[in-house]
TrEMBL record:
Residues 323-439 form the D-3-phosphoglycerate dehydrogenase ASB domain. Its EC number is 1.1.1.95. Transmembrane segments: none annotated. It catalyses: (2R)-3-phosphoglycerate + NAD(+) = 3-phosphooxypyruvate + NADH + H(+). Pathway: Amino-acid biosynthesis; L-serine biosynthesis; L-serine from 3-phospho-D-glycerate: step 1/3. The gene is serA. PROSITE patterns: D_2_HYDROXYACID_DH_1 (PS00065), D_2_HYDROXYACID_DH_2 (PS00670). GO terms for biological process: L-serine biosynthetic process. InterPro entries: ACT-like_dom_sf, ASB_dom_sf, D-isomer_2_OHA_DH_cat_dom, D-isomer_DH_CS, D-isomer_DH_CS1, D-isomer_DH_NAD-bd, NAD(P)-bd_dom_sf, PGDH. This is D-3-phosphoglycerate dehydrogenase.
Length: 527
């Protein structure tokens, strides 16, 4: 299986993929046509900010399971198109945060003390000591626009430098900001109060052009630093503001179009410091993001949960061990429920009871849906299962309950339509030991694996013996069975674990007996 890598990543990531048995093909600086050809047979694609992952590229990638972004920003990836194709998009949101924060602080000093300009002059033989009178960061106010991972790391570092911190981020709480020693305020207030403003938002339709001429005017006499994304700051307005003396200086690591072209208005402006998108370019950061991305490729291709999936539900790393055992279990419960229901579904209800109800369960619900659709849609995965449900007009309902009967946790998938419903419940016994413990209200105890026969019958003497004889006559061994019944002589449901698949005529023979209401064979072999 091939993984295509289109922007340079650290060898540690490439090695990890090779060790996991992948063929790794690199295609740095390939044109669109070459990329479309190279991606055709790739199961994984790894990019940084240098590759545009377009709808056309995804269309050409027929085998693709995952796009791994070895870094944070995903503005170069068409996530909607990936979701439509059932392709996971995952980034590495932690690995380069400290590198980006350090580069930001370095850029603040670079512009406030004119370090690159002084360096250039000295290199050309000029001892221009009298021409550079810098600005001290100590006792100045730093305005942080976007107080996420990088913004917070910058806040910590700049707090230690003696700066006052004021931040604009409509999506975080005042408590979080206060814990970092920052005061939350509106953007205009931040710009008016700050001596230096540093930008740390993603590039989205909302943030594009967020800092433009009117905003720069409010920062009069200050400095602007952008190590987040080009496009958040209007480059023409910024160049003009520095040239006209509205701002003292600016430092930029990122640009609306990269690589930056020679005719950029920012080049050659005296007090504008530029670096070629180096924020994440440290050895440690590159190793971190490359290995984390490789791990996610391996997980995705092995149909295991991908921790940092952006278009599929994911779960916090610390909670993952508690949630993981229920992911496969919910998939199996959804699969069994769908096969037994065998009718149009109007509503899928996933109920969580006991300990699991206290966890983030979106990924578990997506897996239940994946299980439901796996017979119908071979391309289904946790990425596109929720949209498949929507397309099919199935309402997905989640609910939580404290009590889980006598289990620690219970996950129940119930499928409804106007005519009826079926529910399948599963739990984990100690030691990651999955069990289906209730089908359609009958208490059972089935290991969800291999060949399963579910028989509904009248509770009469000899029925179980009859089923055993029919199976035995066909040479099929019963590995285990569990019989649940409503009342003596009422209806019963029996689950048989079989060593082999029964033939269709065996099922017909069972159903031709008046005592048997229904017999259904389920293959759970590939899970
Ligand atoms: N220069 C580099 O090499 C480099 C390295 C790492 C990250 N980055 C970039 O830095 C940026 C921040 O990364 P991060 O990991 O901190 O992301 P993050 O998602 O953790 O944080 C982004 C923050 O921006 C906030 N935000 C979103 N919209 C906003 C708006 N309209 N106004 C104000 N705040 C808004 C969010 O609430 C969030 O708190 C991203 O653009 C990322 O691509 C660049
Ligand atoms: O978003 C990021 O992670 C940074 O901008 C780094 O981008 P890069 O991997 O292209 O250097």
């Amino acid at each position: 299986m091939k993984v295509l890598v289109t922007d340079p990543i650290a060898d540690a990531g490439l090695d990890r993929l090779r060790e996991a048995g992948f063929d790794v093909e690199t295609a740095y600086e390939a044109d669109d046509e070459a990329l479309q050809t190279a991606v055709q047979d790739a199961v994984g694609l790894i990019v940084r900010s240098g590759t545009e992952v377009t709808a056309e590229l995804l269309e050409a990638a027929q085998e693709l399971v995952i796009v791994g972004r070895a870094g944070i920003g995903v503005d170069n990836i068409d996530i909607d198109a990936a979701t439509e194709h059932g392709v996971i998009v995952a980034n590495a949101p932690e690995g380069n945060v400290r590198a980006a924060a350090e580069h930001t602080v370095a850029m603040m000093f670079a512009t406030a003390r004119s370090i690159p300009q002084a360096h250039t002059r000295l290199n050309t033989g000029e001892w221009a000591k009298g021409e550079f009178l810098g600005t001290e960061l100590n006792n100045k106010t730093l305005g942080i626009v976007g107080l996420g991972r990088v913004g917070q790391e910058v806040a910590r570092r700049c707090g230690s430098l003696g700066m006052e911190l004021v931040a604009y981020d409509p999506y975080i709480g005042a408590d979080r900001a206060n814990a970092l020693g920052a005061e939350l305020a509106e953007l205009d207030t931040v710009l008016e109060r700050a001596d230096i403003v540093t930008v740390h938002t993603p590039l989205t339709p909302e943030t594009e052009g967020l800092i433009s001429e009117p905003e720069l005017a409010k920062l009069e006499g200050g400095y602007l630093v952008n190590c987040a994304r080009g496009g958040v700051v209007d480059e023409h307005a910024l160049a003009a503001a520095v040239e006209d003396g509205v701002l003292n200086g600016a430092a930029l690591d990122v640009f609306a179009d990269e690589p930056l072209s020679d005719d950029s208005p920012l080049l050659g402006v005296d007090n504008v410091v530029v670096t070629p998108h180096l924020g994440a370019s440290t050895e440690a950061a590159q190793e971190n993001v490359a290995t984390s991305t490789a791990d996610q490729i391996v997980a995705a291709v092995n149909d295991e949960p991908v921790m940092n999936a952006l278009n599929a539900p994911s779960v916090d790393a610390s909670a993952f061990p508690r949630v993981e055992p229920y992911i496969g279990l919910a998939e199996t419960a959804g699969r069994i429920a769908m096969e037994l229901f065998d009718a149009h579904v109007e509503e899928a209800h996933v109920e969580y009871a006991g300990d699991i109800a206290t966890e983030e369960i979106d990924i578990v619900t997506a897996s239940a849906l994946k299980g439901m659709f796996r017979q119908l849609e071979p391309q289904v995965n946790a990425v596109n299962a929720p949209s498949l449900a929507e397309q099919r007009g199935i309402d997905v309902v989640e609910s939580k309950a404290k009590q889980a009967e006598d289990f620690q946790s219970l996950v129940t998938v119930t499928l409804h339509n106007g005519d009826g419903e079926i529910s399948v419940s599963g739990t984990q016994f100690v030691g990651e030991n999955p069990r289906i413990v209730r089908i359609d209200g009958y208490r059972v105890d089935a290991i969800p694996h291999g060949h399963m026969l579910v028989a509904r019958n009248y509770d009469e003497p000899g029925v179980i013996g009859f089923i055993g004889t029919v199976l035995g006559d066909s040479g099929i061994n019963i590995a285990g069975m569990y019989n649940g019944r409503e009342t003596i002589g009422g209806e019963a449901l029996t689950v048989y674990s079989l060593d082999d698949e029964p033939a269709t005529d065996l099922i017909d023979t069972l159903e031709s007996d008046d005592r048997i209401i229904q017999a259904q064979y389920l293959s759970l072999n590939d899970r």
